């Protein structure tokens, strides 16, 4: 719109990027461009040599150029573009192409791939207007288009605008007054410095970043369970508040974990690459999702730092940009070497993770981490030195010495499952029973004996009067199991009524992790724990669950091979009963969740809490057999297993040392229990590789590729490591054409509403050309040369004359600069969702000043989550918070991806499922409904009204009070007249209908001021609500 | 260069004003001229509401009933009597042909055949076989076009349902409803163009996830996203005035807001301010339209006889079906209903009857109701899930009960009204309902067919994003299934 016509008219030599490429892109490249798969007639017009070789273009000779001939012909079979494409060149476009060939058909690389050179700020006629070099560039464009800048905005408007841009919040009336009364020449600069120093700055900048980072509080796919990753959000806020250099910021985001001796903070930065959506859907194929995750990380990085729509190259060579599939997957290889599993486990802390201790625990946390290894060394040492004593003991040992420990007390059910017959035996409270073996069960080799039961399709045994415990009764259960190498889910044991909200308990397998459900009503009223580590596939392990009857997840211990396991707590809200009116079962829940492909033996259920040592004994059940055997028949491994038992059961010294180690481990666990989780990246030990995937399909691997950067970008330095760290450093090389440009463009759009390149995530050929490339390049280099100083850069923008203009529009400007891309006036646009809500809270005085911490759940209409969430998802029931949490800044609102915060979604807040570089800005009736009716806004209006009444006696003063907080200015007389008029009508209504006043004032959790007559407060609440809905309030 | 979207809107406006193009509806026509005076932004809004169809449309509205989880075609519509002799025998490898399985059954040692335990009957003129679980459907097969050979590539819920709704397995593309809104615009400005309802299933043994991404507008403008109509609480979020604010008080406050905004407009001249004034008026009118829409008090006893008593209970499938008819009556362009819990990995006999009971009479009621009111001709009703189920049993198998895993290679969907040929039965599957023998219909073919009925050539209903002209049906060969069109 800005380029073509003007340069054509000037008769200067045509420029490929500016004048020619857009025409070829629209009409020719789809068939004659970079994508080899869709290329027709083996002709490409995007490369000069290729176009010349084919005779399509003969520089200097349009009439001798095949392309021109085909363009000009009337023959429908010959003409280009072919009629079937429904594309057509205009006469002007044809003339331009001819002239360009005549002028020599010079090509240029795409503008954004040519590294920027710092331009000299252009001379301007109205030099007095210029405050800093930004203004030279802006004014030169305006003058070239015959436009004048707008006058400077008044101080109140400026204070409001700059406060919103730097902190995301309206200025307090005090701040405005101070600025108004400050007569020093640098009053504005000092206001800017004050705002930049506010901790709200980091929140506001961070909020934009979280869109790019696709931050959210749930995993995103299927169960969409809670993900405890808010420490990354805190990290982002802190980074901006500390004014971390953008190059460091980049490196820590992409590779903080790989920095030498990385600090906890640096590792937390790498959480950027952990914000992608993940799944735990039963039945998915891991590789399919690993491919998707890597792709997401690569695409996100490419949009944020390279301004490139890399996703186009997932299935084919990029149609327009110089990025082949091979190059895409080489880029992806950098991000394809993580230890993260495909399945998120439906847990809040999906590995790899770190613990982020509370401030108060931080010191001890470090100490304990050092003490544990020394304690363990002592234990190991005893293990070495005690051997002679053991050997002596073993010589005299009898089988009973070992077997005596196997617990039989309160053994309610015992099924050895070693029969190998058509029937199998089991004991209920010591009484022998037997049943025919179901057809679906076969005998396979066992662990303790020749045979064990192989369960393929669920139920093996059903017993009515066993296992009917209540939540306050301790009990324990155990079995030897061998699991197949798949990620399926199922119950090994259970007494669970899965048709009545899953009441009961089970021994549960999920993704080869083992654990238990103890449920009153799933998921609201239940415990669920699962081991962090997967069990080995196709190997016998002994598993046991010990429940202490305390209705807490901490009282459910999971043991594997006699060792207590670290678990993830998926649910911890049991407050009821476990009693279920269904039988105890081996192999499945009452009607569902059959275990498939598992071999099981030695199933035991105890009506009490087993001690750790007892569980250890169960896991070593075969010891007595070993001791009974003659010494020469004992294998070394067998003797070692007896030694293990001896150390923990007989040797006092070992037990003592072990106890010390365990107490440290427990202390560590306690600190950890109080801490939050940090999601981090962790490189696997393999060398990073990826595969080119045909059409992007995970199961259609083509050639293997190693990490590499695309050819059209600067070369990858030989001394950089070929991993994410080397890659991040490569991104920040001074000769990078895009990194700085893309970044300053994003910052620019935060302040001016639209980037200099509107398509902020696409600087490629199909993206928009910059409206002012000289300005963009100048800004990019200025930012880079400032040491990537973000605060300095924002100061530069907001102190420019361009920024300080009034936003009033004239008909001329509406005609010539309708979208304000040339900046013929100050920026004015509807604020983002978070700002709209924060504004109301701040103006009313309700806003909490707390920074950071876990996400909160403010007001939300009931049923928003429930409507979409799966039963069993732990983000199905939205439990509204109380008190301060209702009034936190919106960036802390819990972000469930399947149902983003309802009131914010209406204002174009993204789902955060993928990287968002530019938010949409639509205006819809649904937005009006939010600011008019949402309890959050009604309560804020009431608070503002209360404060206005409490502080002022006169009507006009009260109106003034409200206006100064919502508009940062007094109302004009004609506005006051409107407000007084409506106030009067409100007073009439609430004066006559007291019930309505009471109802209105009851909205929101906070109580209204009882000293104000309800009819008065209700009327003023409606006044505040009216003013809050002014266009001027929701616009910056 | 004129940005594409602006160009499109200009073009649309011009075509719209010229004679001879097929423009649907008339409600927004009158308001167009008025809106364009409000400046470019408002004109853009109005422009986005209108689209020229490529040819004369057969249908102008859609009710899409999605059965979340994937209904078993074997126990409903795809009758395989031969299977009775195969009970508990292994699925021959020649049938499976190495087809990938979900990891829920890929570890199974055997794949024993589970014939349907339900009785089938030949119905209507068309002779369609329908299981005993769907007695109401048996009465109206001649109104229905059945496709027994739908197929998809996705084998798990998330990608499969995303493909079914948006034409792609990965998230981020606009859904069918959003495309319809983009293509056809609004019939009634006082109601959303594209409405989504999530019905409650009676049985909740195996409810699957759905999420707002399924009704997102993707790269299309946000106004084309589905608006959730809730079955409890406010039907549209925040539609109700706060307690203690009656309509006349709201009117006073809106008059105040509008007067203040008018002054603001005079001061700054921002066309967006004018747009906002209009949006507030629209919101006010929507507040009146929605309660009228959801108030079932005016429905006769005959209605409940038709849809069943369940239609009285908010949130049931029958209730949403009745609401869907009322929406279509009032000019909602696209109604999407989700009904969950069809994911019968186990316990088919304990669950499928509940599932079918939830929807059977309601579907019958909806179609007969539309027919009686003369609306079926121009309304497409679609029923189906994201994939089918396997002939072999997952978990335990007996004559009484069995489970079925996901099966993408064939499943049944049906359509009625809107120019679909009642009584057609399309496609054949093998004896195991495992592979398609004749006339496969991919999800994209289904999409193309629906767009065709709305008057669009699926190859030409495009949107430029990231330099590419995206379409719902993607780039692979796609065909309109004209055999099931009247």
Instruction: Give the helix/strand class of chain B.
Output: alpha/beta
How many structurally independent domains of chain B?
2
Number of helical runs of chain A? 38
Number of DSSP strands of chain A? 21
Q: How does this model look, in words?
A:
Chain A is α+β, with helices and mostly antiparallel strands. Among the domains of chain A are: 105 residues; 209 residues, Jelly Rolls (Sandwich), CATH 2.60.120.200; 190 residues, no CATH class. Chain A is built from 38 helices and 21 strands. In chain A, the strands form 4 sheets. In chain A, strands 2, 3, 4, 5, 6, 8, 13, 14, 15 and 18 form a 10-stranded antiparallel β-sheet that branches. In chain A, a hairpin with a 2-residue loop joins β10 and β11. In chain A, α2 crosses α6 and α25 crosses α27. Chain A is globular, with a radius of gyration of 35 Å. Chain B has 486 residues and is α/β, with parallel strands linked by helices. Chain B has 2 domains: 50 residues, no CATH class; 343 residues, Alkaline Phosphatase, subunit A. Helix content of chain B is 33%, strand content 16%. In chain B, the strands form 5 sheets. In chain B, strands 1, 4, 5, 6, 7, 8, 11, 12 and 15 form a 9-stranded mixed β-sheet that branches. The longest helix of chain B has 25 residues. Chain B starts with a helix and ends in a 15-residue tail after the last strand. Chains A and B meet through α31, α32, α35, α36 and α37 of A and β6, α8 and α9 of B.
Short description:
Chain A is α+β, with helices and mostly antiparallel strands and 1036 residues long. Chain A is 40% helix and 12% strand. In chain B, the strands form 5 sheets. In chain B, strands 1, 4, 5, 6, 7, 8, 11, 12 and 15 form a 9-stranded mixed sheet that branches. In chain B, strands 2-3 form a two-stranded antiparallel sheet. Chain B has a two-stranded antiparallel sheet with strand order 9-10.
């Amino acid at each position: 719109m800005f380029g073509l016509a003007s340069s054509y008219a000037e008769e200067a030599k045509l420029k490929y990027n500016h004048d020619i490429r857009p025409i070829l892109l629209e009409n020719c490249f789809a068939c004659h461009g970079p994508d080899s798969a869709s290329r027709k007639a083996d002709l490409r017009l995007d490369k000069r040599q290729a176009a010349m070789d084919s005779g399509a273009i003969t520089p200097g000779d349009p009439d001798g150029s095949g392309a021109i001939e085909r363009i000009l012909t009337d023959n429908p079979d010959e003409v280009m573009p072919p009629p079937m494409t429904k594309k057509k060149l205009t006469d002007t476009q044809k003339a331009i192409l001819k002239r360009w060939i005549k002028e020599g058909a010079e090509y240029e690389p795409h503008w954004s791939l040519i590294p920027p050179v710092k331009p000299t700020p252009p001379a301007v006629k109205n030099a007095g207007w210029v405050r800093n070099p930004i203004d030279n560039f802006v004014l030169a464009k305006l003058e070239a288009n015959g436009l004048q800048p707008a006058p400077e905005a008044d101080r109140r408007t400026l204070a409001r605008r700059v406060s919103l841009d730097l902190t995301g919040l309206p200025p307090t009336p005090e701040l405005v007054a101070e600025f108004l009364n400050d007569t020093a020449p640098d009053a504005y600069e000092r206001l800017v410095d004050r705002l930049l120093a506010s901790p709200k700055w980091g929140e506001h900048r961070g909020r934009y970043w979280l869109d790019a980072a696709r931050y959210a509080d749930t995993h995103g796919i299927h169960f969409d369970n809670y993900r405890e990753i808010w420490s990354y959000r805190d990290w982002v806020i802190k980074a901006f508040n500390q004014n971390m250099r953008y190059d460091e910021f980049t490196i820590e985001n992409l590779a903080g974990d790989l920095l030498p001796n990385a600090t906890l903070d640096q590792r937390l930065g790498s959480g950027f690459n952990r914000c992608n959506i993940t799944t735990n859907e039963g039945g998915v194929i891991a590789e399919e999702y690993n491919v998707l995750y890597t792709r997401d990380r690569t695409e996100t990085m490419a949009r944020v730092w390279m301004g490139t729509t890399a996703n186009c190259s997932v299935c084919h060579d990029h149609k327009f940009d110089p990025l082949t599939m091979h190059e895409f997957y080489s880029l992806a290889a950098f991000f394809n070497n993580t230890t993260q599993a495909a399945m998120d486990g439906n847990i809040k802390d999906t590995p790899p993770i770190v613990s982020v201790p509370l401030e108060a625990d931080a010191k001890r946390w470090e100490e304990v981490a050092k003490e544990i290894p020394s304690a363990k060394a002592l234990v190991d040492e005893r293990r070495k030195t005690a051997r002679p004593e053991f050997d002596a003991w073993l010589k005299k040992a009898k089988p009973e010495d070992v077997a005596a420990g196997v617990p039989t007390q309160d053994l309610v059910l015992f099924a050895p499952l070693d029969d190998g017959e058509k029937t199998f035996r089991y004991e209920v409270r010591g009484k022998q029973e037997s049943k025919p073996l179901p057809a679906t069960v076969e005998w396979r080799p066992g662990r303790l004996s020749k045979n064990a039961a192989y369960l393929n399709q669920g139920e093996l045994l059903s017993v009515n009067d066993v296992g009917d415990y209540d939540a306050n009764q301790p009990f324990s259960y155990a079995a030897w199991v061998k699991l197949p190498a798949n990620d399926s889910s199922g119950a090994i044991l259970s007494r669970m009524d899965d048709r009545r909200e899953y009441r009961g308990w089970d021994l549960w397998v999920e993704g080869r992790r083992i654990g238990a459900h103890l449920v009153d009503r799933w998921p609201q009223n239940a415990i669920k724990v699962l081991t962090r580590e997967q069990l080995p596939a196709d190997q016998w392990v002994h598993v046991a669950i010990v429940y202490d009857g305390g209705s807490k997840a901490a009282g459910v211990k999971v043991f594997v091979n006699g060792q207590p396991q670290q678990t993830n707590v998926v649910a911890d809200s049991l407050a009821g009963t476990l009693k279920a009116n269904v039988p105890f079962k081996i192999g499945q829940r009452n009607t569902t969740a059959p275990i498939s492909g598992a071999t099981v033996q030695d199933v035991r259920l105890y009506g009490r809490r087993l001690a750790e040592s007892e569980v250890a004994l169960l896991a070593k059940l075969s010891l007595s057999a070993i001791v009974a055997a003659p010494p020469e028949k004992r294998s070394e491994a067998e003797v070692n297993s007896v030694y293990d038992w001896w150390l923990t059961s007989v040797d006092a010294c070992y037990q003592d040392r072990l106890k010390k180690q365990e107490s440290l481990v427990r202390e560590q666990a306690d600190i950890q229990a109080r801490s939050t989780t940090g999601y981090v990246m962790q490189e696997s030990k393999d060398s990073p590789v990826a595969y080119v995937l045909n059409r992007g399909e995970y199961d259609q691997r083509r050639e293997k590729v190693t990490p590499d950067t695309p050819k059209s970008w600067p070369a990858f330095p030989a001394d950089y490591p070929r991993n994410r760290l080397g890659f991040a450093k490569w991104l920040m090389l001074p000769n990078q054409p895009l990194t700085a440009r893309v970044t300053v463009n994003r910052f620019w759009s935060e302040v001016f509403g639209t980037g200099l390149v509107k398509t902020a995530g696409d600087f490629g050929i199909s993206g928009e050309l910059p409206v002012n490339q000289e300005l963009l390049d100048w800004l990019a280099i200025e930012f880079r040369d400032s040491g990537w100083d973000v605060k300095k850069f924002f100061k530069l923008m907001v102190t420019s004359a361009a920024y300080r203009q009034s936003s009033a529009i004239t008909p001329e400007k509406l005609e010539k600069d309708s979208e304000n891309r040339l900046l013929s006036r100050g920026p004015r646009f509807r604020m983002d969702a978070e700002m709209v809500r924060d504004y109301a809270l701040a103006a009313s005085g309700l806003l909490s000043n707390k920074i950071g911490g876990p996400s909160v759940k403010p007001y939300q209409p009931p049923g928003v989550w429930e409507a979409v969430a799966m039963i069993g998802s732990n983000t199905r029931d939205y439990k509204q918070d109380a008190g301060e949490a209702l009034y936190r800044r919106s960036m802390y609102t819990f972000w469930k991806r399947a149902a983003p915060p309802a009131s914010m979604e209406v204002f174009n807040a993204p789902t955060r499922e993928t990287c968002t570089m530019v938010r949409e800005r639509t205006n819809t009736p649904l937005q009006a409904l939010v600011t008019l009716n949402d309890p959050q806004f009604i309560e804020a209006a009431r608070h503002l009204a209360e404060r206005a009444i409490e502080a002022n006696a006169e009507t006009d003063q009260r109106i003034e009070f409200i206006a100064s907080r919502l508009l940062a200015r007094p109302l004009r007389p004609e506005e006051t007249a409107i407000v007084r008029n409506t106030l009067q009508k409100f007073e009439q209504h609430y004066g006559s209908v007291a019930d309505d006043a009471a109802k209105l004032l009851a909205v929101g959790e906070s109580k209204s001021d009882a000293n104000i007559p309800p009819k008065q407060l209700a009327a003023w609440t409606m006044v505040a609500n009216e003013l809050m809905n002014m266009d001027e309030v929701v616009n910056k | 260069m004129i940005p594409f979207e602006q160009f499109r809107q200009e073009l649309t406006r011009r075509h719209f004003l010229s004679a001879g193009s097929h423009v649907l509806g008339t409600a927004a026509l009158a308001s167009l001229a008025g809106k364009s005076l409000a400046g470019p932004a408002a004109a853009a809004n109005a422009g986005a509401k209108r689209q020229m169809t490529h040819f004369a449309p057969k249908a102008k509205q859609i009710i899409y009933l999605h059965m979340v989880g994937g209904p078993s075609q074997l126990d409903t519509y795809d009758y395989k009597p031969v299977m009775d002799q195969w009970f508990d025998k292994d699925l021959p490898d020649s049938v499976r042909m190495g087809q990938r399985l979900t990891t829920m059954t890929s570890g199974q040692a055997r794949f024993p055949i589970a014939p349907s335990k339900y009785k089938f009957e030949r119905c209507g003129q068309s002779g369609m076989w329908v299981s005993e679980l769907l007695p109401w459907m048996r009465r109206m097969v001649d109104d229905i076009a059945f496709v027994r050979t739908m197929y998809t590539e996705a084998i798990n819920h998330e990608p499969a349902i995303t493909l079914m709704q948006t034409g792609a397995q990965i998230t981020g593309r606009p859904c069918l409803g959003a495309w319809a809104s983009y293509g056809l615009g609004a019939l009634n400005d006082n109601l959303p163009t594209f409405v989504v309802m999530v019905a409650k299933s009676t049985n909740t043994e195996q409810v699957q996830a759905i999420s707002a991404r399924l009704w997102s507008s993707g790269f299309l403008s946000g106004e084309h996203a589905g608006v959730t109509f809730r079955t409890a609480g406010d039907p549209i979020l925040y539609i109700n005035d706060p307690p203690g604010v009656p309509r006349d008080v709201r009117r006073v406050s809106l008059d105040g807001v509008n007067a203040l905004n008018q002054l603001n407009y005079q001061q700054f001249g921002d066309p967006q301010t004018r747009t906002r004034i209009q949006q507030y008026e629209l919101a006010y009118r929507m507040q009146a339209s929605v309660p009228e829409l959801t108030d079932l008090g005016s429905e006769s006893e005959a209605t409940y006889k038709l849809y069943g008593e369940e239609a009285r209970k908010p949130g049931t499938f029958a209730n949403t079906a009745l609401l869907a008819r009322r929406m279509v009556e009032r000019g909602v362009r696209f109604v999407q209903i989700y009904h969950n819990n069809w994911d019968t990995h186990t316990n088919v006999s304990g669950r499928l009857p509940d599932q079918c009971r939830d929807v059977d009479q309601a579907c019958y009621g909806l179609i007969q109701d539309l027919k009686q009111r003369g609306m079926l001709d121009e309304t497409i009703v679609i029923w189906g899930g994201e994939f089918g189920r396997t002939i072999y049993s997952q978990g335990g198998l007996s004559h009484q009960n069995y489970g079925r895993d996901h099966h993408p290679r064939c499943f049944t969907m049906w359509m009625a009204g809107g120019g679909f040929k009642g009584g057609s039965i399309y496609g054949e599957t093998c004896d195991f309902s495992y592979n398609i023998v004749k006339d496969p219909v991919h999800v994209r073919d289904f999409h193309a067919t629906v767009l065709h009925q709305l008057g669009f050539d699926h190859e030409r209903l495009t949107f430029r994003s990231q330099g590419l002209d995206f379409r719902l049906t993607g780039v692979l060969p796609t065909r309109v299934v004209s055999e099931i069109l009247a």
